[in-house]
Amino acid sequence: MDIDDMVLISIDDHTIELPGMFDEHMPVKFRDQAPKLVQDEGGHDQWVFQGTSVGLPGLAAVASWPKEEWGFDPTGFAEMRPGCYDIEARIADMDANGMLAGMNFPTSPGFAGTHLAKLPDRELTNAAISAYNDWSLDELAGEHPGRFIPLSIVPYFDIDSAVAEINRVAKLGCRTVSLPEAPYALGLPSFASGHYDPLFKAIAENDMVVALHIGVAFGLIQRPPDTMLDDIMLLAPQIMSITTIDILLSGLLRKFPNLRFALSEGGIGWVPFLLDRLDRHSTNQTWTDFTSTLPPGQTPTDVWREHFLACFITDPAALRLRDRMGVETLAWECDYPHSDSTWPYSPEALHSELTLAGCSDGEIDQITWANVAKFFRYDPFAAIPKEEATVGALRKRAAEAGVDVSTTSKAEYRRRWDLAHAS
Questions:
Q1: For the chain, what are the domain ranges?
Q2: Is 392:4 a contact under the CB 8 Å cutoff?
């Protein structure tokens, strides 16, 4: 398949929420208490909610910076590429990358709303979560048909409220809910406890996908005091295997046989080994209760292929084992605007790996868009005809619009920001 003929859909990107976003969607009685973007004493932007800092607006939002400037240092809007926070600029950046659509996780609320969930005023937190969802559904996805897969967060610390929010956003067309991939790492009950069964029941009844993004489970692995940042970043994808085992052992898929789990930024290299180990375990260790947690009559590989979708940025070795995993379980991610992203050359990087792995045109379509469409019950061509959704068509549009993807320093972005905002 020619690069220009590919269609790309990413199931892991990130939004940077603009100031005032919560104000516009919070109930009137709570607007003066909505999350606010303020500057700290060092001049860094940070979100403050219920008197507590809940995160920086652009942590690791390094898109188009020279690599020597990359890091987790605090990043304000003035230093970011506009596509990080401005929706129209984001779409232009997607066009330049030949990417039709993406599923975006929040930043300041936490990938699964964990930054908000830790705060004490639950009613106020619930209102902020609903406000984020309304922005995500109405403005991000709703005003840009075909470009974003709707994703929501829920107040998972309050099961009744979480169920109500699931039912509410499902009626608004939401297809996905992001949950912590290891809630017990936050001191909460595990998936196996039964505590979340009403939540999973609502998700299943609304035919939604559970999106699990790496992050929370970092706390499960004890590292030495002198551990390096690289240590966590390199181990992160492998932690998703813990989440997968948690789900299989929880009995959730026996209770709710149509649940589906999308695993974001976990990669796929660990999957073949885990499936081999699980299948051997299920036949050798017949004295344990393992098989009683699985849907009746299914092997772990059967369960994986029916209920999971794993995504990768680059995974050249694992793609050669795609038949072992099931090509239908694989999807691609861009991870814009983070340092792991291959933007703006994702088509080249992905096409090279798929070609070297010997993927057929049909397999390339599955991995780049068709698996996502099936898994999320999402028609990528409902609003945009396929001939206008290809890498070539989108990049042509970006070129005609003059989208600049050249390396640009944060100092230059600040200079442009200051000029644009000069009184």
A1: 3-420
A2: yes
